[in-house]
């Protein structure tokens, strides 16, 4: 029998969301309230296991009395506030942000990006063929995961996951300035020469596919990656006694990658190198 902890009761706040009165627990963000109300607000940099970074600015909404649009992922809901999510101003802002991102990086492996571009009628090509793009070749320098910075939107989620929010390895950070800013290990050295411990927790939080399993990357290159044919099975890692939950992604009777449920109280989506990458012995048929 599974017992779900109730936690500390929180006072409910009442405010207006798109003209309708809603209630949300104290401490909730506007984005939390929108999701609870069934409103679909796009976001890239928000992660359910990380502190909001306010980097992508796609989730902006209008709040009565606020001078500027506010990021729904980090702005706390307040009693009596009036929030409007689908105003022309908010939609135009999202459209421009999507256009700027899509014109500079490859969003082909970003979940729902094509849907959002269509919904907001974004036209990345309007900047012309001379628009600056991050045309960087994927870095395939190890057998575990690939860094494709041509897909990176600088959401900083990988930096936070590697840093003080989870792993505390501090192997990666932001290097450069302006358009030349990029995610890199110390001195932009090869990954094998860095402090990286190959836990893969940066892959877990990456929203665009800029960081991906080597297995997934190779299958996408070969045209065989098909999530519609994949099943997911939750099990427990057997490498040690911590009890981390693993979610096995299986395609054609082969494990193609391993993740961990974000709502698991042990892992919160995080794993070590063995849990995330040490699965090949299961299907070694030699």
TrEMBL record:
Domain 4Fe-4S Mo/W bis-MGD-type as annotated: residue spans: 230-286
Keywords: 4Fe-4S, Iron, Iron-sulfur, Metal-binding
Record-annotated membrane-spanning stretches: none
Keyword Mitochondrion: no
Pfam families for the chain: Fer2_4 (PF13510), Fer4_7 (PF12838), Molybdop_Fe4S4 (PF04879)
Matches recorded under CDD domains: fer2 (cd00207)
Domain 4Fe-4S ferredoxin-type residues, every copy: 188-216
Domain 2Fe-2S ferredoxin-type, residue spans: 11-89
InterPro entries (UniProt xref): 2Fe-2S_ferredoxin-like_sf, 2Fe-2S_ferredoxin-type, 4Fe4S_Fe-S-bd, 4Fe4S_Fe_S_CS, Mopterin_OxRdtase_4Fe-4S_dom, MopterinOxRdtase_cofactor_BS, PSI_iron-sulfur_center
Superkingdom in the source lineage: Bacteria
Name by which UniProt lists this protein: 2Fe-2S iron-sulfur cluster-binding protein
């Amino acid at each position: 029998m599974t017992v779900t902890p109730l936690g500390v009761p929180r006072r409910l706040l009442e405010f207006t969301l798109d003209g309708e009165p809603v209630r949300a627990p104290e401490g909730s963000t506007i984005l939390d309230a929108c999701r609870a109300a069934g409103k679909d607000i796009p976001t890239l940099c928000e992660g359910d296991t990380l502190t909001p970074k306010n980097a992508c600015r796609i989730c902006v909404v209008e709040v009565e009395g606020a001078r500027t649009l506010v990021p729904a992922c980090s702005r706390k809901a307040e009693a009596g506030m009036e929030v409007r999510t689908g105003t022309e101003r908010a939609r135009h802002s999202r459209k421009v942000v999507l256009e700027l991102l899509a014109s500079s990086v490859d969003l082909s492996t970003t979940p729902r990006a094509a849907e959002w571009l269509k919904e907001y009628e974004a036209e990345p090509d309007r900047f012309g063929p001379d628009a600056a793009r991050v045309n960087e070749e994927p870095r395939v320098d190890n057998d575990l995961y690939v860094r494709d910075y041509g897909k990176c939107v600088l959401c900083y989620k990988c930096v936070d996951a590697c840093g003080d929010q989870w792993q505390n390895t501090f192997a990666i950070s932001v290097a450069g300035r302006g358009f030349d800013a990029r995610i890199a290990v110390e001195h932009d050295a090869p990954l094998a020469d860095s402090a990286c411990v190959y836990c893969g927790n940066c892959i877990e939080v990456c929203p665009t596919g800029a960081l991906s399993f080597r297995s997934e990357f190779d299958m996408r290159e070969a045209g065989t990656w098909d999530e519609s044919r994949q099943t997911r099975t939750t099990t427990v890692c057997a490498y040690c006694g911590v009890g981390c939950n693993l979610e096995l992604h299986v395609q054609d009777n082969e494990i193609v990658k391993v993740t961990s449920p974000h709502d698991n109280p042990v892992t919160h989506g995080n794993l070590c190198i063995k849990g995330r990458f040490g699965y090949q012995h299961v299907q070694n048929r030699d």
